[in-house]
């Protein structure tokens, strides 16, 4: 009887051990599957974001081209036609001049919208020249001195240059609208595969993280989304008494 009792106890322990082993094995399989599932979902979301941003870029380029080639061409033709009519109809010259001025204004506005949608320098010259051209325009209007420097020519993939331009456009637009800024320095440095962009201004201190949590912070959320799509991050130097400093970092730039 003693031997039988010991066998029962042994079988109990063995059975318990087997059940625990199976339970832990099943738990391991479930956890592994969940991790794989969430990893796949995250990857899928990242791919969808990249596709969405690339589609936006292509659509902007298409609309900009349509405005430049189509509407601008039509307005230029109308302007030339009015000039011819004005010479023939001297008594209505003032009216023709007013119409021509209106067409001129519409033509300039169309070109401005076209360049804002897809800056021509971005594709032909790259990020730094496009950024300088853009900031010269808004800086003159807002009376802000923007200085853009870099450590040489930056050979960036077109998709990376485009997203960075939009990020810097959003940051500088916020400076113009809300920052009370008079001077802003932007330094762009590419060292091997690591790109660092340092943005410093003398405006009102601004907490990026706190404002990012606000429901109407779509512009700041877009900054994060665009940087995430190209493997970048933005970090703010906190506890500054005056002004703001942000650093954008991208690793493995050519693989973004």
Automatic annotation (TrEMBL):
<dbReference type="GO" id="GO:0000155">
    <property type="term" value="F:phosphorelay sensor kinase activity"/>
</dbReference>
<dbReference type="GO" id="GO:0046983">
    <property type="term" value="F:protein dimerization activity"/>
</dbReference>
<dbReference type="InterPro" id="IPR003594">
    <property type="entry name" value="HATPase_dom"/>
</dbReference>
<dbReference type="InterPro" id="IPR011712">
    <property type="entry name" value="Sig_transdc_His_kin_sub3_dim/P"/>
</dbReference>
<feature type="domain" description="Signal transduction histidine kinase subgroup 3 dimerisation and phosphoacceptor">
    <location>
        <begin position="59"/>
        <end position="120"/>
    </location>
</feature>
<keyword id="KW-0902">Two-component regulatory system</keyword>
<feature type="transmembrane region" description="Helical">
    <location>
        <begin position="12"/>
        <end position="33"/>
    </location>
</feature>
<dbReference type="InterPro" id="IPR050482">
    <property type="entry name" value="Sensor_HK_TwoCompSys"/>
</dbReference>
<keyword id="KW-0472">Membrane</keyword>
<keyword id="KW-0812">Transmembrane</keyword>
<keyword id="KW-0418">Kinase</keyword>
<keyword id="KW-1133">Transmembrane helix</keyword>
<dbReference type="Pfam" id="PF02518">
    <property type="entry name" value="HATPase_c"/>
</dbReference>
<dbReference type="GO" id="GO:0005524">
    <property type="term" value="F:ATP binding"/>
</dbReference>
<dbReference type="GO" id="GO:0016020">
    <property type="term" value="C:membrane"/>
</dbReference>
<keyword id="KW-0547">Nucleotide-binding</keyword>
<dbReference type="InterPro" id="IPR036890">
    <property type="entry name" value="HATPase_C_sf"/>
</dbReference>
<feature type="domain" description="Histidine kinase/HSP90-like ATPase">
    <location>
        <begin position="163"/>
        <end position="251"/>
    </location>
</feature>
<keyword id="KW-0597">Phosphoprotein</keyword>
<dbReference type="Pfam" id="PF07730">
    <property type="entry name" value="HisKA_3"/>
</dbReference>
<keyword id="KW-0808">Transferase</keyword>
<keyword id="KW-0067">ATP-binding</keyword>
<protein>
    <recommendedName>
        <fullName>histidine kinase</fullName>
        <ecNumber>2.7.13.3</ecNumber>
    </recommendedName>
</protein>
């Amino acid at each position: 009887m003693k031997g039988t009792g010991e066998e029962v106890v042994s079988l109990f322990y063995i059975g318990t051990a087997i059940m625990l082993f199976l339970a832990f094995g099943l738990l391991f399989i479930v956890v592994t599957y969940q991790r794989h599932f969430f990893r796949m979902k995250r990857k899928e979301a990242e791919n969808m974001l990249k596709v969405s941003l690339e589609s936006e870029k292509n659509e902007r380029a298409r609309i900009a081209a349509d405005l430049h080639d189509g509407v601008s061409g039509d307005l230029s033709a109308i302007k030339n036609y009015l000039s011819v009519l004005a010479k023939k109809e001297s008594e209505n010259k003032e009216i023709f001049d007013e119409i021509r001025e209106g067409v001129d204004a519409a033509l300039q506005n169309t070109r401005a919208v076209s360049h804002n949608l897809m800056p021509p320098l971005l594709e032909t010259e790259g990020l730094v020249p496009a950024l300088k051209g853009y900031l010269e325009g808004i800086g003159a209007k807002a009376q802000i001195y923007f200085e853009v420097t870099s450590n040489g020519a930056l050979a960036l993939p077109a998709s990376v240059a485009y997203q960075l331009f939009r990020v810097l456009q959003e940051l500088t637009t916020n400076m113009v609208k809300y920052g009370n800024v008079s001077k802003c320095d932007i330094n762009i440095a590419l060292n091997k595969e690591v790109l660092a962009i340092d943005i410093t201004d003398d405006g009102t201190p601004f907490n990026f993280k706190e404002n990012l949590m606000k429901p109407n912070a779509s512009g700041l959320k877009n900054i994060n989304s665009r940087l995430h799509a190209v493997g970048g991050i933005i970090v703010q130097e906190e506890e500054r008494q005056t002004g703001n400093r942000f650093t954008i970092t991208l690793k493995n730039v050519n693989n973004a």
